[in-house]
């Protein structure tokens, strides 16, 4: 057995390459299995009959994520997805274009004249939070609380300024309390926002339960924030790493940005893995995996599989291949059009105002401290007007 390269949060890719080659289906503990090759990851993500997304008790208002789409299997998943898709349509998202432009313009105005700044704090974090907050109809000045909650849910816990630790469970409880109040208000007085729409939609005479509405709000807050933040941060990191890309994109942003964003999603996927549980004994590429096993499907590795991509470890701005950054199959990311739109609009405005970006001290940037998410909590950049 060859010793694998040490797993490195900033650069997990050599470890993935090793695992794809030597242990593509790796049993880490008695009941935890990791999957690294593209075709296996695709199967684990999309074969819901053998690989279940369910975790915990559904319909428990105190465990909103267990009651959300992402933790559900058919047939309920299908019904719930049809319901929320009525409120969260691609057209509703496209209608947000002007507002997203306004928000990102005003964030850019706020740091105009400043050439050294933490771009996560100034742009890539606040943009998605403000957009989600507006979609849900919650005041955007609550965004520090949102950040604290989504950090705690993503990382499992979060240390507060007071030194206290906010646990995953407490963060969920606080979100539930917050949204319960908001949902009750909208029930009495509907407004033009997503929560009011969610209260209204019906399929076959059936509407969403309170636990499901709360679950969806919490899911959007968590799924829509950290992910989009890191898509944008990873795009900017790539522009630092390959300086020729800035003038190339600035020349024809409308034609070139979409493909660039897709390649960032492949190359540095914001979500590096997803979980499933086997529903029965399964064979995966000839390997028997027992029922009840926890599966870790490594999207970040699948996106660099040499069996699917030519020169997978090279960033190719014109690569027209698909990737698994938004998942695959029935759970394919509902927010993908929104994430793409936010990233493209913000990048376009940066390209218009500046001529280059650099990260003077890469070691001072802080990676998100979990293998689930690839991105940055802090990234000091230098922008040249
Ligand atoms: C599902 C990634 C942005 C809402 C997913 C899944 C992935 C993903 C990998 C599939 C999960 C699975 O198979 O278990 C991302 C990435 C994003 C992003 C990389 C940004 C770059 C967003 C945004 C929203 C959102 C902005 C909403 C505002 C959702 C929802 C699901 C989901 C609701 C669950 C869909 C279902 O289970 O049917 N996302 N996401 N995501 N995402 Fe995203």
TrEMBL record:
Q: Which UniProt keywords apply?
A: Heme, Iron, Metal-binding, Monooxygenase, Oxidoreductase
Which family does this protein fall into?
Belongs to the cytochrome P450 family.
Q: Which CDD domains match?
A: P450_EryK-like
UniProt xrefs under InterPro entries: Cyt_P450, Cyt_P450_B, Cyt_P450_CS, Cyt_P450_sf
User: What is the native source organism of this protein?
Assistant: Alicyclobacillus fodiniaquatilis
SUPFAM superfamilies, sorted: Cytochrome P450
Q: What protein does this entry describe?
A: Cytochrome P450
